Amino acid sequence: MIMTKEDCINIGYISKAHGVRGDLRAVFDVHDLREYVKRKSFWFAKKDGPLVEGKLTFFRPQQKMEVLIHLEGVEDRNAAENWVGSTLYIPAEELPKLKDGHFYYFQVIGFTVMDEQLGALGTVRDFADGSAQDIMVMDYQDKEVLIPMTDTFVGKADFEKKLIYTNLPEGLVEAYLE
Questions:
Q1: DSSP per residue, the chain
Q2: Model confidence over 22-33: pLDDT tens digits?
Q3: Which residue among 77, 134, 135, 174 has the highest number of C-beta atoms inside a 10 angstrom radius?
């Protein structure tokens, strides 16, 4: 099967080799690691390189979002070092299903932000990592507006209407227009 990065979602990276038997330490950027424990493989790529499927022989969650993995054919530390720095991917269609109205960030890029008080605002352009929580980046009246991704401010998405609902604090949008 030929898989492209456009077909996949980045869910983490290989941070380092672990031990002498070819184990790898992977760092995941996912909501719940338990949803990935039974996977048989992941796709990997280094920088602009092609995707390569790696079949797992084990997947052992460690601390926080780190996991020890072992790939078929990677039998020593030297072979493992070749995988360090690789990005981990899974096909988008294999992402765990979310509850109705919930979304993955990539799914709502281009959606209109619909606020309870202000009505239709701008469009979702991107998401960024913030120090306290993730940030939704919205384009509004030729300005960039940053919205904290909290349950208080951001609600559900309507995929049919391409809307994402918010309840923004008074003055947040106006602060970006000054």
A1: ----GGGEEEEEEEEEEETTTTEEEEEE-SS-GGGGTT-SEEEEE-TTSPPEEEEEEEEEE-STTEEEEEETT--SHHHHHTTTTPEEEEEGGGSPP--TT---GGGGTTPEEEETTTEEEEEEEEEE--SSS-EEEEEETTEEEEEE--TTTEEEEETTTTEEEE-PPTTHHHHHH-
A2: 999 999 988 788
A3: 135
pLDDT digits (tens, 9 = 90+) for 27-62: 998 878 888 999 999 999 998 889 999 999 999 999
Residue ranges of domains in the chain, CATH in brackets: 5-94 (2.40.30.60), 105-173 (2.30.30.240)
